[in-house]
Amino acid sequence: MPATDLEQIVNLCKRRGFVYPSAEIYGGFRSSYDYGPLGSLMLRNVKDAWVRAMVQERDDVMLIDAAILGPHAVFEASGHLANFSDPLVDCTVCKKRFREDQLDDRDCPQKMKGCTFTEARAFNLMFKTHAGPVEGEGTDVFMRPETAQGMFVNFANVLQTSRRKPPFGIAQVGKSFRNEITPGNFIFRTREFEQMEMEYFVPPAESAKWYEYWCQERMNWYIEYGIPADMLRLRAHASDELSHYSAGTSDIEFKFPWGWGELEGIAQRTDFDLKRHAEYSKQKLDYFDQATNERYVPFVVEPAAGANRTMAAFLLAAYDEDVVNDESRTVLRLHPRLAPYQVAVLPLSKKDTLMPLAKEIYSKLAKRYMCEFDETQAIGRRYRRQDEIGTPFCVTVDFDSLEDGAVTIRERDTTNQERVAISDLENELRVKIGF
Ligand code: ATP
Q1: What is the dihedral of CA 180, 184, 185, 190, to 10 degrees?
Q2: If pLDDT is split at 50, 70 and 90, which confidence band does 213 have?
């Protein structure tokens, strides 16, 4: 059964080295997190799985990596300076701050008696800094609040160098920054986070069709990587919820322990962004179709996901507790492509006789998979550890291995063990792991 309490995941993440509170030795830096040895591998796997589906396995989407810092002009054109704000209210009793749109019935979440709120103020979420050595003399620059603008300002560059025609997409994975009023729920909402976004440029008449297409594709991606369908839903925004640029948005939501929460938004951004950047930069940002002799500004369909939130969802969905040989265990049933390690190589004993063979096997497998080598404790405890960090397969090298040239493959989900010849090991694992 998936985790029902966020603390189950928070504790596991800390204990096993997935996610640590940032700057912990200084008492922590509120709502910031550092990804440890396992978490950084898993986060990278989440992003790689996205790039695989969105770029590698398609012939119509290209990846870019744009700058994080941007000038005033970009965010003036995008509308972020004027519109990217949340309604901030203060409770006059408990003095806490809230996002007005997240309050139920205007009840203070602190449940203080007689709470009243101030009028809502628009609070801009952009982080501003300055470029140049002397503060005040340089120009103000902004940390991007989404990766999307990198795709719009590079539209003409990519179009020219790739010689594509709509429909085609530009994708990017990278950090974004928002000065959130109420960060929280572990890595669900932080001020610094990673996004996985794709702008799909289409002929205007095809926008609705592609919107439907991407809603479906993206739902399938989460299911393919292990989230049960009943923990996902697609929720269309009501008209008063829509962003200033959107002609229709649906969120893919995950059933978090505290309720449904957004993993990804799929928006019809129309021609808003390209038109605004064309207007502000005075450059042509359109497409000339030689077949029809027509010039038009493409419409955009944007699937925009968050890597950290998605990682939290994969962890929650994969979490399980079961009983094996009368002993309870915690197991992360992660997809092999998401698990930090695909294989752990475990010599049964630390004795010198086993080490060379075990190391040799590790070196070979490590060329193909992210592997862990662990010779530390009793074998049963090592299996438990690998179960808890989601490693789908353990390869155990024992004293018989020296005689029969075989090792044991132990499967995380079933705990089944199977003896295979070392000469067949790579092939066996390839079949079992699926890549
Ligand atoms: P929310 O309503 O939760 O604030 P949003 O609708 O503003 O999110 P988008 O602008 O659509 O979010 O960004 C796309 C994705 O980026 C979100 O679906 C989410 O996964 C991720 N994301 C946005 N803000 C944060 C944040 N503060 N921390 C972590 N991930 C975030």
Answers
A1: 50
A2: very high
Element (H, E) at 404: helix 399-404
In angstroms, the Cα distances linking 286 to 92, 204, 294 are: 51, 12, 10
Instruction: From residue 71, give the alpha-carbon distance in Å to each of 80, 141, 155, 179, 404.
Output: 12, 5, 17, 18, 66
138 Cβ contact partners less than 8 Å away, ≥ 6 residues apart: 130, 131, 132
Cβ count near 9 (within 10 Å): 22
Residues in the chain: 435
Residue ID of nearest Cα to ligand 1 atom 21: 306
Residue 90 Cβ contacting ligand 1 at under 6 Å: no
Question: What is the phi/psi pair of residue 172, to 5°?
Answer: -155, 145
- Report residue 20's pLDDT band, with 50, 70 and 90 as the boundaries: very high
Q: Is 180 in the pocket of ligand 1 (CB under 6 A)?
A: yes
Using the predicted structure, report yes or no on whether residue 323 has a pLDDT greater than 80: yes
Alpha-carbon gap, residue 42 to 34, rounded angstroms: 13
Paired tokens of 155: 């539209």
CA-to-CA distance for 344 and 411, rounded, in angstroms?
Answer: 11
According to DSSP, residue 103 is labeled: -
Output the CA 306–ligand 1 centroid distance in Å: 6
Single-letter amino acid code for the residue at 186: F
Ligand 1, closest atom to CA 307? 20
Backbone angles phi, psi at 287, to 5 degrees: -130, 135
DSSP label at residue 184: B
Residue 388 pairs with which residues in a beta bridge? Answer: none
Ligand 1 center to 331 CA (angstroms) = 29
- Report pTM: 0.94
- Name which of 256, 262, 269, 413 is nearest 333 in CA terms: 413
Tell me the mean pLDDT in the region 96-105. Answer: 80
**Residue 297: DSSP 8-state:** P
Angle between helix 6-16 and helix 379-389 axes, rounded to 10 deg: 120
